[in-house]
Design goal:
Elements: H1 2-24, H2 28-41, H3 45-63, H4 67-76, H5 90-102, H6 107-118, H7 126-146, H8 152-183
Helix pairs in contact: 1-8, 2-7, 3-4, 4-6, 5-6, 5-7
Length: 184
């Protein structure tokens, strides 16, 4: 029973990782590191990934010349574009923003800039901002060392198992409905 429960739990975890990776565009190994680290710094992965998505929109707004976005990044001293004008890697920019926000002592100013760049959930990111990018890297390495990060093949195998379990559950539900209809 314990092994079956562990397998089901692993399948649900893999399904969550694969779905979130597809939705956010974050690589599965990086996402698992974030999941591990986010739990330890008390920031949900959902908040983290939503703020990353908002930050990509903010980077595009800078590229488009939106004044408030340009000013927010300038205030932090973070560049959003490469020398050729193309947008920089969004995750690199994200962690530079987190570190730059961590250096701002005035909490109101920090929160205002964070909200401008990272969205309305920025205040929920304060534990992450205090931890900083280097601490998140350390925790990501710790996740790797602890075996928390599953390989792509393992995730795919668990994901396929989860799909089969969902199909069985749906089939059982359909059979139950058919039997109920007959009895009715």
């Amino acid at each position: 029973t314990a092994l079956v429960a562990a397998t089901k739990s692993g399948a649900e975890y893999a399904d969550n990782v694969l779905t979130t990776a597809t939705q956010t565009g974050i690589a599965t190994d990086t996402l698992q590191e974030y999941m591990y680290a986010a739990e330890l710094v008390d920031v949900s992965v959902e908040t983290l990934s939503k703020s990353m998505a908002k930050q990509i929109k903010s980077m595009k707004a800078v590229q488009d010349g939106t004044k408030l976005s340009v000013e927010a990044y300038q205030a932090l001293g973070v560049e959003t574009a490469n020398a050729d004008g193309s947008l920089r890697n969004s995750q690199d920019v994200y962690w530079e923003v987190i570190d730059a926000l961590g250096k701002i002592e005035n909490e109101t100013q920090r929160d205002a800039l964070a909200m401008q760049i990272l969205g309305k959930s920025a205040q929920e990111l304060n534990p992450l901002i205090e931890a900083g990018a280097e601490r998140m890297k350390e925790l990501g390495a710790q996740a790797q060392e602890a075996g928390y990060v599953l390989s792509g093949n393992t995730l795919e195998a668990f994901g396929a198992f989860d799909d089969r379990m969902q199909e069985l559950k749906t089939g059982a539900e359909a059979a139950k409905n058919a039997l109920g209809t007959v009895l009715l």
